[in-house]
Design brief:
Chain A is of the alpha+beta class. In chain A, about 25% of the residues lie in helices and about 20% in strands. Chain B has about 525 residues and is of the alpha/beta class. Classes of the chains: A alpha+beta (about 350), B alpha/beta (about 525).
Chain lengths: ~350, ~525
């Protein structure tokens, strides 16, 4: 018997099936219902904090949070109504009123535009509830990666939960309640003194830019639009998919690919923040050849390729084809290793090649 | 890895040995942490109290290089307690009887004298793994970088074969590959024994296949490993091409390595930077790197993914495949007329049995894990589900061997080396990325506080650490991460070139260096010189 047999709910008047354990939100999302959320991250346990995802459930007195309510056979659910939309709008007005700013730069993090987008969608920039801002920012934290601008925090706890549930690091915690709620670290110290590994997951899940990618934000002033290119991290063998963020010819940041098959949205400090070697002035920009004085000096490609080919051939001609050895890289792409092994095999008929795996 | 990364959330017992996963493969480690949050138990065998130990139920703080003894004793307990999977052994393995007999003599009490781990702890770990419904083994270079690396890996295989913990979800023998494309480097045939796709060069059928593809007879003999090639540099080996490896810094026995490269008639290096190795070359080519190169790479779970160019390379830098092809053409070799990475990858797929069902377009979204033997095949996330490629799993009768060098009066301390979370290898990339220095500004030698006191040092003192091959100057840091008598440092910082010290021996089968064990002596650093005694 299929998992879905006999399991249906009525969603906005349409009968749809669901799988055991699915929440109303998950079923609705599969059916392309646009239910707003702020505290939701599909990788994390549902939290039910922001109350934006409420839906009307026939027979229930009040709307229920769809992210925490499991679908049950026969439920009749309405995801959109005048009453729900009003409720959502007021909530967004309230949430926005707590923050110093609603609009943050998209370089702040993967989810950083979520609140601003919803506030616009619900036309909630009314300023009706202007007043005190909650959260105390930590400009004193000198870490170069994570901005801690809690005056933009809405206490959705996504950072706390991603750090605990996704990373297992428990570096971020919450103190106080109500209006005094404050995202913090143990003992209220600096991130460096906590169990934080600077993986950047809190930055990427924050829906308001309260926790933001400080390193990427250095590039706010560059006028060009942000473009994203899907690739794979260059460090360890896990193979985390990343989106390389660029403005023009410059890499301005990295975001984890939420649908990366190996990492499913996760990254570590190296993949997240150690990318700017790409533009380091030490990068080699031309070939170099050794001159008559034994110094390495810049050369044209033609000159260098000829020198390389003749130098390698000289050894082969003088000492035989087993005198040339090739070492391939464990860092370069497959195409590099393939052409190099082909050079010794197809070119010289030897297997005089290895890579860095033995040391 | 025999199993996919997503399986790391599925075991009920996790056995990590010689893998500092939270620092070296942090994203994979997050999956283990999830498994633990869901109730899985974990055994961590590591000389040091690495962060993973904080999540473990059993920590086996074994002496560096004693893994084989520990694993023999674990097998002993599993056999003695009748925890073997008889059906699996009967149907899918061979040499089981000899192995069951062999392990009878290797008791936990015996292993305790070698490893320094309490016999009771070894028993506990063995029972935990032996009783697992889904037991998964994870290891890294802490297992392989020994003179007995092959023995260690085979000892782990023995445990999995004994208990049937292979070929199912949440089980397996899972080496965590260290570099982004070290798996791919082997896959594409950049090894002395195999053509692309692990087709042995010693098989005449393969020779004929590649003769036909490339129009040239290729030796039936294997090539030699890099270790042997460096030994023969200046004699048999007169020229080298090194692509993207800072050999001088990352290989063992730096002095020997530098000498070898200097004695070549001709050295060509392709790299992103003028590395210590490139400095020795006759010609250096500027290669494109991350964010600049279209191509493919293959991860530790055998997943083939696309790399995409996002920005133009600096100056005149070119992709490695282009540089190598141009050199080959100018050497007069045929078959290097590639116009794109796609051309190269598609040729690889056409010749590789493991990539046969792939091509450039098919890996657009990275959903394939090899082997993909033909078009339309969905890939193979989990190996050995329906049987082993070579028929049956073979038990190997392993005996414990001492490391190449052991501590003595002259070199009384064990040095073991590894990586740290925030830096990578010789720091050519992390060292040139802003902010990383905030987390890890310099290298230090991790020493147990009681050892520091016994040796008369204070936390932060400069010391001179010497092995039989050389010495380095390094600052000590006091930490209980190190057990007494064992010290740790990474090899990442060029002002503390730790691989001057290493290189005591090599595995006889693979030529892998024993980088994880090096007896040293530690003395006060001479005061003065060019380094401030702060």
């Amino acid at each position: 018997m299929s998992e879905t047999t006999g399991r249906t709910i009525v969603l906005d008047g349409q009968e749809v099936s669901f799988e055991r354990g699915e929440t109303i939100f998950q079923v609705a999302e599969r059916h392309r219902k646009e239910i707003p959320t702020l505290c939701y991250d599909e990788r994390l346990d549902p939290f039910g904090g922001c109350r934006l995802c409420v839906v009307e459930l026939e027979g229930a007195r009040n709307p229920v949070a769809s992210c925490t309510t499991k679908a049950e056979p026969g439920m009749r659910v309405t995801t959109r109504s005048g009453k729900l939309e009003m409720h959502r709008r007021v909530l967004l007005e309230l949430v926005a009123s707590e923050n110093r700013e609603v609009d943050v730069d998209e370089l702040s993090g993967y989810a950083s535009q979520e609140m601003a987008t919803l506030v616009d969608r619900y036309d909630a920039r009314t300023g009706r509830f202007a007043g005190r801002k909650s959260g105390t920012s930590r400009p004193d934290d000198p870490n170069p990666f994570i901005k801690r601008d809690y005056e933009n925090c809405i206490s959705c706890y996504r950072c706390v939960r991603v750090c605990a549930e996704q990373e297992g690091d428990y570096a971020i915690s919450v103190m106080n309640r109500g209006f005094e709620t404050q995202i913090t670290t143990e003992f209220g110290g600096l991130l460096k003194d906590s169990s934080c590994t600077f993986c950047g997951q809190c930055v990427q899940t924050c829906p308001t830019g309260a926790l933001a990618d400080l390193k990427a934000l250095r590039h706010v002033e560059i006028e060009e639009p942000v473009e994203k290119t899907r690739s794979v991290c260059t460090y360890c063998g896990v193979g985390c998919a990343v989106d390389i963020m660029t403005k023009g010819d410059q890499v301005v940041g990295i975001q984890p690919a939420m649908d990366g098959p190996a990492n499913e949205g996760a990254l570590c400090v190296k993949g997240q923040f150690a990318y700017d070697f790409v533009h380091h002035p030490d990068r080699l920009k031309t070939p170099f050849v050794r001159d008559d004085h034994g110094r390495l000096v810049p050369a044209t490609w033609d000159e260098a390729l000829d020198r390389a080919a003749s130098g390698l051939l000289a050894a082969v001609n003088q000492h035989g084809r087993h005198s040339l050895y090739a070492v391939a890289s464990g860092r370069a792409p497959n195409e590099a290793g393939f052409t190099l092994q082909k050079l010794v095999r197809a070119g010289l008929g030897t297997s005089y090649i290895d890579n860095c795996s033995r040391a | 890895m025999s199993n996919p990364l997503r399986d790391m959330e599925k075991p009920d017992v996790i056995f990590c040995i010689g893998t500092n996963m939270t620092e070296c493969h942090p994203v994979a480690a997050t999956r283990l942490k999830k498994a633990i949050r869901n109730g899985a138990k974990m055994i961590v065998a590591d000389p040091r109290t690495i962060d993973l130990v904080g999540y473990a139920d059993v920590h086996l703080p074994l002496r560096v290089g004693s893994d084989a003894a520990l694993l023999l004793a674990m097998a002993h307990v599993i056999v003695r307690e009748g925890l073997v999977n008889e059906g699996f052994m009967r149907e899918r393995t061979t040499e089981a009887e000899a192995f069951l007999e062999h392990v009878k003599q290797w008791t936990p009490e015996w292993a305790s004298t070698i490893t320094g781990v309490d016999a009771a702890l070894i028993e506990e770990a063995a029972l935990l793994y032996g009783r697992a419904e889904r037991g998964a083994i994870y290891y890294t270079l802490g297992i392989t970088e020994h003179i007995c690396g092959v023995d260690n890996v085979q000892s782990l295989c023995n445990l999995a074969l004994l208990t049937g913990n292979i070929g199912r979800e949440g089980t397996g023998i899972n080496p965590m590959r260290g570099q982004n494309n070290i798996q791919g480097a082997g896959d594409v045939g950049a090894i002395p024994n195999n053509y692309p796709g692990f087709q042995p060069v010693t098989d005449p059928a393969n020779q004929a296949k590649f003769q036909k593809a490339w129009g040239r007879d290729i030796d039936l003999e294997k090539g030699i490993t890099k270790v042997r090639a460096l030994e023969r540099a200046g004699e048999q080996i007169r020229a080298m091409i090194i692509d993207g490896e800072n050999t001088v810094v990352t290989d063992p026995d730096r002095e020997h390595c530098e000498h070898a490269l200097k004695s070549l008639d001709f050295l060509v290096v392709c790299d992103l930077f003028m590395t210590e190795t490139a400095e020795l070359a006759h010609v250096v080519f500027p290669a494109t790197g991350f964010a600049e190169t279209d191509g493919t790479q293959t991860n530790t779970e055998r997943r083939v993914q696309r790399l995409r160019q996002a920005v133009p390379p600096p100056g005149e830098a070119k992709p490695d495949w282009w540089i190598i092809s141009q050199i080959a053409r100018r050497m007069g070799f045929q078959g290097f007329d590639y116009e794109s990475a796609k051309d190269v990858f598609n040729e690889l797929c056409s010749l590789s049995k493991t990539y046969a069902g792939l091509d450039w377009d098919r890996i657009e979204f990275g959903e394939y894990q090899w082997p993909v033997p033909h078009e339309g095949h969905p890939g193979t996330p989990r190996l050995h589900e329906d049987g082993f490629i070579n028929g049956r799993g073979i038990f190997k009768l392993i005996n414990y061997r001492d490391p190449a060098e052991t501590v003595d009066d002259e070199y009384p301390v064990w040095l073991t080396t590894g990586r740290r979370l925030a830096s990578y290898h010789s720091r050519t990339q992390t060292g040139r990325s802003s902010g990383i220095d905030y987390l890890l500004p310099e290298e230090s030698l991790e020493v147990h506080p009681d050892d520091l006191a016994a040796w008369g040092f204070q936390d932060g003192d400069w010391v001179d650490m010497a092995s039989r091959r050389g010495s380095v100057r390094i600052r000590v840091s006091s930490t209980t991460r190190s057990p007494r008598g064992t010290v740790f440092s990474s090899f990442s910082f060029n002002d503390v070139p730790v691989n001057i010290l290493t290189g005591s021996g090599y595995d006889p089968v693979t030529d892998t260096a024993e980088l994880k064990v090096c007896p040293v002596r530690i003395r006060p650093a001479p005061i003065g010189g060019d380094v401030a005694a702060d």
